Amino acid sequence: MIEPGDIPALPRGVRLHFDRVRDTWVLLAPERAITLDAVGHAILSEVDGARSFAQITADLARKYDAPAEEIAKDSAGFLGALRDRRFLDVTQ
Amino acid sequence: MTPPPPIAMLAELTHRCPLSCPYCSNPLDLARIDLELDTGTWTRVFQEAADLGVLQLHLSGGEPASRRDLVDLVRAARDAGLYTNLITSGIGLSQRRLQELDAAGLDHVQLSLQGTDAEMADEIGGYRGGFDRKMQVARWIGEIGFPLTLNAVLHRRNLHQLPRALEMAQEMGARRIEVATVQFHGWAMKNRDALMPTREQAAEATRIVGEARAALKGTLVIDYVPADYHGDYPKRCMGGWGTTGLNVAPDGQVLPCHAAQTIPQLTFENVQDRPLGEIWRESAAFNAYRGTDWMQEPCSSCERKTVDFGGCRCQAMALAGDPAATDPVCVKSPHHGALQARAQGHAAQEGATLTYRDAPPKKAAEPAE
Questions:
Q1: Is the pLDDT of residue B368 over 80?
Q2: pTM for this structure?
Q3: Which of B51, B85, B175, B216 to mutate to test the interface with A (most CBs of A within 10 A)?
Q4: What's the distance, Cα to Cα, between the start and end of chain A in Å?
């Protein structure tokens, strides 16, 4: 699980890309392209390798006027799956 | 109906290669060196690919480092907005050239592994000193920090080295390893006696991969291509014909997969004659096996027909003599039993020697006097 103090970062070779042909954001990674929905894009746009998971979810809650616990729950699952696939680095 | 745009393009920049692996996926009829597309044409093709919707570009060959303009091609691909992956044996990459590729924006390197020691790797690659050179290249890749996938190609001769290959991937700092059992197309078809894994080896590899996936979760991602002659259901080849990816051969021919030229019923169009997007949408070769209308029984009434699309068309051609037949790997194919018997027969040929791939011709053969 991702803990509140963990700092997520996109490693080298993983980046956000706007796919103009399909009109959607995608996450490009080694030999993979993952289509992002609006929520996934919003979360990854906040991942900067500096702010902690808790700070990111708090900022998102403020920005989208949504409960922080709910955002944290959704984000943890999404980011955890990316980490398992080595598309996300997490430092403590 | 307009097909969805492709996600990935394999650009076979050249069929030249310092290695001569006996399972090379290049066609037996290798593209002539003097017919290779030039830098400007590839640059245009990369832009057309991006405009078409391609996101991932795989620069392959042969050995792509054999192209003197590789750095320029990587820069052109990145300028077009493509995620750029170099598929290489490492031979031909100096430290300086890797630094230039880094500056040009190369996103990812996939390094092939012919064996886990020099004796095995150099014999399989047919290139003495290749393994030591590759290990040096792997260190430079790590120093620069390129994301790395190790691609271990496995067959009867080296399947016992799979555990060591998994260790090596971790030692090199790779995030990902492809454990690829040889697929029998191209030159590998000439080497089935020498390379066909035994049923026991195939099962052992599946067991090792399963354990390693659990143990290395979050550390090393393992993509696994099992030995399909020993399987019961065929692979979903190319993610479905003409749905996900396309190949451009060194001379500009556009292929639905790298082995498609083995299907004599198909004719292919060339990026020198027509824009890539038109070829993708309209070429008869791409439309031949799109969707499910082309299928025969047992595929056409099968509940798996949109799962695996009947398997591999080139394998159906090679093994059943009909590219629209069910892939004989499938248990429902009338050829399945014969294929399994043949696989066991190939796997029992203990003394079989390797037939190495050739070098591509420089020019057309001179007409006889």
A1: no
A2: 0.95
A3: B175
A4: 12
Whose CA is closest to B99, among B135, B145, B156?
B145
Beta bridge partners, B221, equal B176
Q: Which residue of A has its CA nearest to B105?
A: A13
**Euclidean distance between CA atoms B161 and B165, whole angstroms:** 6
Output phi, psi for B222, to 5 deg: -115, 115
Beta strands across the sheet bearing B148-154: B221-225, B176-181, B148-154, B108-113, B83-88, B56-60, B8-12, B245-248, B254-255
ipTM of this predicted structure: 0.94
Q: What angle separates helix A53-64 from helix A38-46, to the nearest 10 degrees?
A: 130
CA separation for the pair B179, B199 (Å, rounded): 17
B110 in A contact zone (CB under 8 Å): yes
pLDDT value, residue B365: 65
Determine the Cα angle at B312 with ends B307 and B314, to 5°: 160
Angle, in degrees to the nearest 10, between helices B199-215 and B162-171: 30
- Does residue B155 belong to the interface with chain A, where contact is any CB pair within 8 Å? no
Q: Is the pLDDT of residue B130 over 60?
A: yes
Measured between alpha carbons, how far is residue B282 from residues B94, B286, B314 in Å?
42, 7, 21
